[in-house]
Amino acid sequence: MKEFLGIGGYRREPSGAYSWQHLLFVGLLLAAMVVLAIIFGRMYRNKDVKDKNKVLIAAAILIDAFEIFKIIVMIIRSDEPSTAWHNLLPLYLCSIQLITIPLAAFTKGRVKQAALDFVLIFGILGAILGTVGAAQNYGAYPVLSLDNVVSGITHSISGFASLYIAISGMTSLKKRNMPITFGILGFFCVVAYAVNKVLDTNYMFLMRDDGTPYVMLTNLVKGNSVLYAIGVIVLFVIYIALFYLAQTLIEKKKKIS
Questions:
Q1: For the whole model, what pTM was predicted?
Q2: Chain segment 127-160, per-residue pLDDT in tens
Q3: Residue 83 to residues 18, 64, 87, 118, 199: CA-CA distances in angstroms?
Q4: Are 158 and 63 in contact (CB under 8 A)?
Q5: H, E, C per residue of 119-147
Q6: How far apart are CA 66 and CA 174, in angstroms?
Q7: If 0-12 CB within 10 Å is exposed, 13-18 middle and 19+ buried, where does residue 106 land?
Q8: Is the separation of the CB atoms in 160 and 154 below 8 Å?
């Protein structure tokens, strides 16, 4: 257990980015995520909102419990516990789900609807980027370690919540909720950028790509840090807009039919 938690440092060598161990592990996680979302989504599809919400409540509790446990262990094992928290704040795009899934589960009205939209839109993206796309983690830590296992679980919970919301019919992507959805994203981007400047961190990957697929954006802007940050935010906005546009087109098609 001490070796799994990384207390005293990992003695095992990392399997490597996109190694068969990496791909097998995240493949199993994503398969479980999809299967469970289909099972629970179909099970609760014809239930009332209160019953549907029970699954989201469980997801909200689990994702925050796993993340809090990981943060506590990482601070305890750190050589500098007083500053270890600098890189552990919930300010990555995937980390926003630690807040938006509970908002979707425990609030009401337009805030709930916008939170449901946000989880739907970014949950599955975060699941893929945080498992298959998080190649740098599997090059730095053993596959079966706190860093990769808990991260894989929390990202998969985000993806599960996204798929469950879609399959159970909990969201409608109403255009009137777009300002709140964009507001959630904008708030976290501003806070993340400010924290990055103060603590020299890289939340939301607004400062640099760190080996993630954002490297394509870095190459596109030829390393310009300002254009890179703007580009990341623009990609977020486009991604959200495409979801609402798709829903609008689907509604128009239904009316015509």
A1: 0.89
A2: 998 899 888 899 999 999 999 999 999 999 999 9
A3: 31, 21, 8, 31, 10
A4: yes
A5: HHHHHHHHHHHCCCCCHHHHHHCCCCCHH
A6: 32
A7: middle
A8: no
